[in-house]
């Protein structure tokens, strides 16, 4: 019998009786009995760990096999060692891996669900012309996310242990450098767009709001009232910023339209519910570190029903003939997800899934606006 694996043994012996008739414990017969003629073979690869090698000494129980190591296995291993040992191969692999890992870490750092929502607003037919309008918007979102994660590291160890700063994928120093680069990039692009002074002011205000929201001693997020105000201002500001930046990049004047008023009103309500839904999964960590939010005061169950109720009311108030069917479908999906979260006893992981589902509703609404 030939055995070829990471740990290769070779031996030769004759067939013998496998069971010891004097052993009172039949379960241990194979393990306890050693035939007098059976040699104890020691692996020639004693220092090479393998899941197939549980011990270095093996009692051979009636196996008839051949004494040889597979030359093919050795040649394959030697070839792999030469390839892996190549400096050029290691260098290419290392650089490519570092770039991909850093890009993936940045993607996780800027809250992908929020970025998808902002990009989904874009009209893809005008995407290339209006591309630079997205840069300040994404820069503001990225900056606010970095600030929040830098100052919430201890809380996120409980609530979101998979975030880059908590898991160690990115250092705090790197996050600080990245936040400065992102904020300056957004400001430079905002000025280069030659947009209205109001747009520049809104962007600068958004950067300071991102700082005030997370950074002590101000840290508005720990007070329910200021938390509520910053959420409203950020979503209204986002709508103005998006509209102003897009019209500026396309060379169009800023004109107020009824449809724009509708978008601001509806999406501001949705933005508030998103912010409150985010706090549901953070209740445990926020309570431990003394962060007072509406969710910590009401509890997960009451907060979930409040968020769902406001969204359902939003679907009823803002309606048109085209929106009736779409809002009915989205409302049904919301009720189903609320029920699923209740069945999961409002645990942290299902609460995060519920929060991300509300972002899906947010994306869906922008597609409905195409038909207004």
UniProtKB/TrEMBL annotation:
Q: One GO CC term of this entry?
A: chloroplast membrane
Residue span of region Disordered: 72-91
The lineage's top-level taxon is Eukaryota
Pfam family membership, one: UbiA
Broad class of where this protein is predominantly found: plastid
Give the matching InterPro entries.
UbiA_prenyltransferase, UbiA_sf
Asked if the Swiss-Prot or TrEMBL record annotates the protein with the keyword Lyase, the reply is no
**Annotated TM spans:** 126-151, 172-191, 197-215, 227-246, 258-277, 298-318, 324-342, 354-371
UniProt keywords (A-Z) are: Chloroplast, Membrane, Plastid, Transferase, Transit peptide, Transmembrane, Transmembrane helix
Tell me which positions the record assigns to the signal sequence.
none
> What is the protein's membrane topology class?
Multi-pass membrane protein
Location in or out of the cell: Plastid, Chloroplast membrane
- MF-aspect GO terms: transferase activity, transferring alkyl or aryl (other than methyl) groups
What family is this?
Answer: Belongs to the UbiA prenyltransferase family.
Q: Which PANTHER family match?
A: HOMOGENTISATE SOLANESYLTRANSFERASE, CHLOROPLASTIC
Protein name as annotated: Uncharacterized protein
Q: Which organism is it from?
A: Cannabis sativa
